[in-house]
């Protein structure tokens, strides 16, 4: 019995009106971005959602084509995202837009990446615990320095 390998069909996102207004090459390049540039299906879905949201917002702002998008539009959208989403989500959405426009610049669809100059949100990280010196106990035969972390575990290092 000869079985042909099963093909996985990718569900491509619908091409937004702003992209189709830029021409056929823009539509093809947009679909190529999701089909070949992003291999992880979860990342592809998150990036498609971010691109759809951003381009829908651009259309509601009165832009007619993806070539009309400027850094000011990206900054305004990111600012809007900070009111409804957490910092990691906003950073991922900005990465999606930046990556998409990089792909479109490489394909000569748009002349520059309007998201390239937009900086992401700062993330707050807890400072690393600092080691402190614990002197050896009196009467101990060990003269080596003992180090511990302030994490409260009480173990010597």
State the helix count: 5
Which value, in Å, is the CA radius of gyration? 25 Å
**Helix-strand topology string:** HHHHHEE
Shape field: elongated
Please list the strands of the largest sheet in the order they lie side by side: 1-2
Query: What's the multimeric state?
Result: single chain
% residues in beta strands: 5-15%
What proportion of the residues is helical, as a percent range?
Answer: 40-55%
Structural class: mainly alpha
Average pLDDT reading: 80
Number of domains: 2
Count of extended strands: 2
Q: What is the CA-CA span between the terminal residues?
A: 64 Å
> Sheet with the most strands?
2 strands, antiparallel
Protein model, in words:
With 157 residues, the protein is mostly helical. The protein has 2 domains: 17-106, no CATH class; 129-157, no CATH class. Helices cover 46% and strands 5% of the residues. A two-stranded antiparallel sheet has the order 1-2. The longest helix is centred in the first third of the chain and has 20 residues, at 41-60. The protein starts with 16 loop residues before the first helix and ends in an 8-residue tail after the last strand. Residues 149-153 have low confidence and may be disordered.
